[in-house]
Write a structure and sequence with these properties.
123 residues; alpha/beta; 5 helices; 5 strands; globular
Length: 123
């Protein structure tokens, strides 16, 4: 089964998605900031990283830049899940090979799950 790493500082949101993805049969682990997200991703080797951008200690954009420089992380699928618009996020994520961009306020939890499922099926 697929493994998903959720890197999100809002516990209510991360718990919501953790429950939702587990109900779908996925293995899910959570980190609350980019620094812990890097450790989690390296340990877990998830099939997809669901990544918030605005977090303490290390932003999602900073985490993504470091992740993409690692041998394993250069190809992992990443879906941005944030309240920052694409235009505002663009400088942080430009050229970082992301597979999806989800604006939290515009997607239901089921739509987020469906988006991640599509990303997982991409080659």
């Amino acid at each position: 089964m697929y493994k998903i790493a959720i890197v999100e500082d809002d516990r209510a949101i991360s718990q919501l998605y953790q429950i939702k993805f587990k109900k779908e049969g996925y293995t899910v682990e959570v980190a609350e900031n980019g620094k812990d997200g890097l450790v989690l991703a390296e340990k877990m080797k998830p099939d997809v990283v669901l990544l918030d951008l605005m977090m303490p200690e290390m932003t999602g954009g900073e985490m993504l830049k470091v992740l993409r420089k690692t041998e394993w992380g250069k190809d992992v699928k990443v879906v941005i899940l944030t309240n920052v618009s694409v235009d505002e996020a663009e400088p942080e994520i430009k050229g970082q090979n992301i597979q999806g961009f989800i604006l939290k306020a515009h997607y239901t939890p089921q739509q987020v799950v469906d988006t991640v499922k599509k990303v997982l099926l991409q080659k």
